[in-house]
Amino acid sequence: MAKLIVYYAHPGHKYSHANKAMAAEARDVDGITFVDLYAEYPRFEINIDREQQRLLDHDVILFQFPMFWYSTPSLIKEWQDLVLEHGFAYGVGGDKLAGKCMILAVTAAGQNDAYTRQGYQQHPIRTFLTPLEQTAKLCHMDFSAPYVLYGSLRAPQEGLLEPHVEGYRKLLEAIRDDRYDLQAAVHGEVIACNELPILEGA
Question: Is pTM, for the whole model, over 0.70?
Answer without folding.
Answer: yes
